[in-house]
Amino acid sequence: MDEAKWSKTRFDEIQAGLTPFLLKTGYKTSDLVYIPIAGLTGDNIMEKSDKCNWYNGPTFMEYLDTVELDQRFPQGDLRIPVLDKMKEKDLIIHGKVENGTITLGDKLALMPSGNPAQVIGLLDGKGQNVQYAKPGENVQIKLNVADEDAVKRGDVICHRDKMMPVTQLFEAEIDVLELLDYKPILSKGYCCIMHIHTYNDEITIKDIIRSEEMSEKGELVVKHKPQYTRSQSKIICRVEPKNPVALEKFQNIPQMGRFTLRDEGKTICVGKVLKYKPYVKGIVGAQTHSAEDLAKKMAGVTITTAAPEMVYDMETGEMKPKKADLGAIAEGEEDE
Predict the structure, then answer these.
(1) How many of the other CB atoms lie within 10 Å of CB of 175?
(2) How far apart (Å, rounded) are the C-alpha atoms in residues 33 and 18?
(3) Is there a contact between 234 and 173 (Cβ–Cβ < 8 Å)?
(4) 250 close to 257: Cβ distance less than 8 angstroms
(5) What is the structure's pLDDT at 328?
(6) What span, in angstroms and rounded, lies between the C-alpha atoms of 295 and 113?
(7) What pLDDT score does 210 carry?
(8) What is the pLDDT of residue 148?
(9) Which residue ranges of the chain lie beneath pLDDT 70?
(10) Cα(72)–Cα(122) distance, rounded to whole angstroms?
(11) How many CB atoms lie within 10 A of CB 39?
């Protein structure tokens, strides 16, 4: 605001321009708070500024102290998206604990590959050795892993007995923001880049199941299985990533189930995962203990199993024995 000489006219102009956009992306009026500040001089950040006599609200830090934090679940399933890695004496993984608790010595799996690993060292955000880390903490994890080259940004660290789901087809609720000028419609087959936790890859819109748009008269128009949709609409659609991706339903772990879609460097959509179809080719996400079994194979232990083939129920979130008649159901029809 110091650049605008603390002009209330400019403050109102910014507020009037941003509010409609934020409301269309899903925010409510009660969620929006505008505070005039100057970062370089610190005005209205810690203490109230006498340069802005027309503003009587809280300072930036006063307001932050009133914000309620999202609930975290230290006893939940461990989820740590890999942000970066570096190789010193040991392989060190950088990431943030989004859910659950990681402890020194934990036996882990890296999804979606299922590669087994074990914690041999744990450092907090300040580089100090710790015994464990809880949700919200940035950590550096020293890992013992068989294939260090297979560990990459976008992988998710989890415990072997509670492995993260992997999919190559999921259903999502998406808010379409502003599409590109020369690509003004979003339809079946639309390709762009998805960013979810630390992972990004190309995706394709496989089907649009439902759309909600505002007509020129300001009326809400709901369409089922439309051919396409435009900017400023809300849709439920099926999304097909180019490669298998580890994710969660938004209702279970929001941090691992929300994403953005970008096209040519522009954010065109924001969305959340509603349900998914498990990826069951090979060991990737096929069964809960696949990483543990792989670790046993690496140790020379012979594994024999007569367990029935399991399928994932997208509605209940449970693994169930595969029924014989499911083999005739084509992909995309499993939840019709």
Answers:
(1) 16
(2) 11
(3) yes
(4) yes
(5) 37
(6) 13
(7) 93
(8) 83
(9) 280-336
(10) 20
(11) 11
Token pair listed for 4: 């605008």
Residue 192 has a pLDDT of: 95
Give CA–CA dist 166/244, Å, rounded: 6
Q: Under a CB-based contact definition with an 8 Å cutoff, are residues 311 and 278 in contact?
A: yes
CA-CA distances (angstroms) from residue 170 to 244, 274, 306? 11, 8, 30
Going along the chain from its start, the domains and CATH numbers come out as 8-64 (no CATH), 80-162 (2.40.30.10), 166-276 (2.40.30.10)
Q: How far is CA 108 from CA 66, 114, 136, 286, 291, in A?
A: 37, 9, 19, 16, 8
Nearest in space to 288 (alpha carbons), one of 77, 106, 13? 77
Cα–Cα distance measured from residue 312 to residue 287, given in angstroms and rounded to the nearest whole number: 10
Beta-bridge partner residues of 224? 210
Question: What φ, ψ does residue 118 adopt, rounded to 5°?
Answer: -140, 140
Distance separating alpha carbons of residues 130 and 153, to the nearest angstrom? 23
Count of alpha carbons within 13 Å of 132, Cβ hemisphere only? 11
The DSSP line for 8-30 is HHHHHHHHHHHHHHHHHTT--GG
State how far the Cα of 233 lies from the Cα of 317, in Å rounded to an integer.
Answer: 29
Which residue blocks in 25-113 are alpha helix, DSSP H? 60-64
Tokens of 71: 């609930």
pTM of the complete model: 0.73
- Distance of alpha carbon 155 from alpha carbon 160, whole angstroms: 14
Dist CA 273 CA 283 (whole Å): 23
Q: What 3-state DSSP class applies to 277?
A: strand
